[in-house]
Amino acid sequence: MSKKHRVTLHEVAAHAGVSTSTVSLVIRNNPRISEATRKKVFDSINTLGYVYDRVAANLRSQSSGIVGVIVTDISNKFISEFLIGAQNTLEQFGYTVLLGTTFDSVSKQDKLLSTMVEHRVDGLILNPASKSSEKTVKKINELQIPIVLANRELEDANCDYVGIDYVKGAYIAVTHLLEKGHKRIAYLGGIKASSTWIERMQGFQLAYERAGLKLDESLIIDGPPTREGGFDAVSKVLQNENPPTAIFCFSDLVASGVLQGLALHELTPGVDIDIVGFDNIPDSEIYHPPLTTVSSFPRSIGIKSANILYEKMTKSSPEKQRIILKPELIIRETS
Amino acid sequence: MSKKHRVTLHEVAAHAGVSTSTVSLVIRNNPRISEATRKKVFDSINTLGYVYDRVAANLRSQSSGIVGVIVTDISNKFISEFLIGAQNTLEQFGYTVLLGTTFDSVSKQDKLLSTMVEHRVDGLILNPASKSSEKTVKKINELQIPIVLANRELEDANCDYVGIDYVKGAYIAVTHLLEKGHKRIAYLGGIKASSTWIERMQGFQLAYERAGLKLDESLIIDGPPTREGGFDAVSKVLQNENPPTAIFCFSDLVASGVLQGLALHELTPGVDIDIVGFDNIPDSEIYHPPLTTVSSFPRSIGIKSANILYEKMTKSSPEKQRIILKPELIIRETS
DNA sequence: CTGAAAGCGCTTACAG
DNA sequence: CTGAAAGCGCTTACAG
After folding, report:
1. Do residues B293 and B253 lie in contact, with contact meaning Cβ atoms separated by under 8 Å?
2. Half-sphere exposure (CA, 13 Å, Cβ side) for B213?
3. Which of A111, B252, B311, B326 lies at a CB distance of 3.0 to 4.6 Å from B279, suitable for a disulfide?
4. Where does the record place the HTH lacI-type domain (chains A, B) (predicted)?
5. Confidence of residue B1 (pLDDT cuts 50, 70, 90)
6. Which candidate in B27, B73, B99, B108 is best for mutational testing of the A interface (most A CBs within 10 A)?
């Protein structure tokens, strides 16, 4: 093993006494090579310490074996679970994952999209930033590679999509609160411009309509889909002259901030005020107190996204797919 | 914009009426190209919709612009925070991150290491699997690329390292419990073979020694560094004929499982039994009840790791570095 | 079942 | 300040 020089196919071929084509075929397990030759080549590979150069292979074969996955925030458990599902599935198919995190910034997202294309990714799974604009959609539609959107749908984007039914999720959560007798329910956190926020809002309204109630706009406070966002939103809504008796949170992460804020005001969730989250992240179970929430299925979304992408990358004319998973209500101690 | 064909440097050169070398230099912002030529070339790039092909560039220039980051578990908040730090820093330096998750499996780690090298990553940040063996170390030492280890040190590995002082962290946690009058303290979770477990054990022992106490091996139960691991360990230790009055947990994640297990036995943390975690992940603050824990600094570790790796990738003969961050005790309600 | 030759799309000296 | 030519390390038809 030399220090700087990388062993090439040529050298392996020379050492084994065959042609480079043969070595290439052996490496890729092509069955039309005889067992004897195969063994000879593998011996040479081992003694020379040859390392396959995918960069060269990719240039020649015009595919990279790399899939880009762009998400908004890996420290959000929902997203990290989603990522695990996508990554595991992709790796099983033999792909490697190039990860990008946008922190919900559209400009960062644009940059990542460009970088990934320059790296010739074979496909892309995108969990779009909340404020993705028409410009983003245009860019995505111009991309010449398979792409699937996850968790958040983009209007007019010509892509496959995997997500959950946020309308229904919000509907069951709010209906649960209404059935408990609440008439003033707040909706806290999440970016108003995003499809995920809008769809929850639709479910929220639907539940109100069916109950024959009118909603109070002053109880709807949007903000970043983070713990801080939840903390700020609850602080604001508690200053309302007629404060809510229950809160529907955009996500469990937002709910965690809401719980923090309530503790500060010495309000006990489930007693003084009812709270419902969204996502059912594992930690919601050990929040203080354990959080009632809507269960979505991030890992399944990741797996499904990867499967669809794989089909798009390998089949010639796959059908466009749109998969919507059904949510469930998990009742714990905050309601 | 044609549908299948990718525009090449050649075509841009022809369109702009210059040579490919010139286009190449323009793209890479080489200052020795005149402003006029530069503009002409950029115009052609835009009208043709040219996309830079890094795969080709990388093959020729023998560097990929990609850094591999291999971690044990992105759904662990400590790790995801670490990743954010590393990734942000690396991206600022212009690198793209190829992510690998081992789920603490050594064989998966081996495979990922190979894949990354085949993709010609320029450098590697490795958060080693708990049971990484001598074989792993040998493999790492043979790698011809810069590599920095994070969070867990590997004996005899010839690498830079960034982590925190686990001995001291465990020492301050256990001393805190001893000062509260506890004499039977359990140590739950974590893999016995890993440096992170061993170092905490050393701190644990040191605290006991200074207090003039002898430790009881039956209160030391190792296991996977996960919530499930914590749950299982606490279930076991509670069956001890002389159960502990306090528990030092390998990590906050383990502590979350311990809290779950205690709830099942109707023991109230901070009242019936004291608990201390390790990591100070954001959620520990809203655990039920809020967890006393040792604060480590995952994001800083990520940032430091990336900085050191960058130096190694760019400087010719950097000094070997070993950075150990100091932990702090955060007292909340479980003790 | 195996080999000789061309080429993927860039960058790199080198020449002018 | 710019161009012609070689080459990075593979894979891909094609021929035998």
Report:
1. no
2. 19
3. B252
4. 7-61
5. very low
6. B99
Q: Based on the structure, what is the number of domains in chain B?
A: 3
Helices (H), strands (E): how many in chain B?
Answer: 12, 12
At residue A228, the pLDDT reads 92
Nearest to A286 among B64, B119, B259 (CB): B259
CATH number at residue B251: 3.40.50.2300
* Residue A69 located in a structural domain: yes
Q: Are both A289 and A320 inside the same structural domain? A: no
Q: Do residues B159 and B244 both lie within one domain?
A: no
Neighbouring-strand partners of residue B295: B279, B328
pLDDT at A318 exceeding the cut of 60: yes
Containing H/E element for B99? strand B96-101
Q: What is the mean pLDDT of chain B?
A: 92
* Domain co-membership, A150 together with A184: no
Cα–Cα separations (whole angstroms), residue A232 to A254, A256, A288: 10, 12, 18
Q: Is residue B332 part of a domain?
A: no
Nearest Cα neighbor of B196 from B324, B102, B290, B329 is B324
pLDDT tens, position by position, A269-299:
999 999 999 999 888 888 888 999 999 999 9
Q: Does residue A227 belong to the interface with chain B, where contact is any CB pair within 8 Å?
A: yes
B21 lies in the same domain as B117: no
Contact criterion met (CB < 8 Å) for B77 and A75: yes
CATH classification of the domain holding A36: 1.10.260.40
Question: In which domain, by residue range, is B256 found?
Answer: 166-295
Prior bond of B289 cis (ω within 30°): yes
What average pLDDT does range A158-175 have in this prediction? 96
Same domain, A198 and A157: no
Q: Cβ contacts (< 8 Å) between A292 and chain B: which residues?
A: none
Partner A contacted by B45 (CB < 8 A): no
Cα-to-chain-centroid distance, residue B179: 32
A332 domain-assigned: no
| Angle at B109 (CA atoms; ends A57, B279), nearest 5 degrees | 130
Q: How big is chain A, counted in residues?
A: 335
Q: Are residues B240 and B189 in the same domain?
A: yes
The first and second tokens of residue A141, run together, are: 């539609």
Which phi and psi (to 5°) does residue A11 adopt? -65, -40
- From chain A, pick out residues whose CB is under 8 angstroms from the CB of B98: 66, 96-99
Strands A322-325 and A220-221, bridge-based pairing: unpaired
Residue pair A252/A284 in contact by the 8 Å Cβ criterion: yes
Contact A80, A74 (CB under 8 A): yes
For residues B185 and B259, membership in a common domain is answered with yes
Which bases of strand D have any atom within 7 Å of the beta carbon of a protein residue?
1-13
Shared domain for A177 and A88, answered yes or no, is no
CB contact under 8 A, A282 and B80: no
The answer to whether A119 CB sits below 7 Å from nucleic acid chain C is: no
